[in-house]
Design a protein that fits this description.
Helix content is 48%, strand content 14%. A hairpin with a 2-residue loop joins strand 1 and strand 2. By secondary structure, the protein is of the alpha+beta class. The longest helix has 21 residues. Strands 2-1-3 form a three-stranded antiparallel β-sheet, sandwiched between helices. The protein is built from five helices and three strands; from the N terminus they run ααααββαβ. The chain is globular, with a radius of gyration of 17 Å.
């Protein structure tokens, strides 16, 4: 059986049209999986107030250790860490958590910047 990395490598060699077909097939598969999950076990995109509060506390408490990286959380439980969003997201999916919260965690001394017109 092929590993995920092997599948991704093979997908990179597809033509743009084949990649679109693959994406559509995978999107359909995900939608069907979501439809088969009982409503009680589904998570909303951000969770309820308690979940968001626990997540925020985890983020505040772990900036020193994980700052400057992307983290994937299930509530207040760390699932994965990566140097960028796609890697952290892929690790969360590999852990069986398609609804993981993935975000960049700034370093304690990092200053946030926003783009815009000058």
């Amino acid at each position: 059986m092929a590993t995920l990395e092997q599948i991704i490598d093979e997908a990179r060699s597809l033509s743009p049209a084949e990649k679109r077909i693959l994406r559509e097939a995978l999107d359909l598969e995900l939608e069907q999986m979501k439809a088969n999950v009982p409503a009680k076990t589904r998570h909303s995109e951000n969770g309820d107030d308690e979940t968001r509060g626990r997540r925020l506390e985890w983020l505040k408490s772990n900036r020193e250790e994980y700052g400057g990286q992307y983290v994937a959380l299930d509530g207040d439980r760390l699932l994965a860490v990566g140097p960028n969003y796609p890697i952290a997201r892929e690790k969360a999916l590999a852990a069986g958590k398609p609804n993981a919260f993935v975000t960049y965690l700034p370093k304690p001394d990092e200053i946030g910047e926003m783009g815009g017109w000058v």
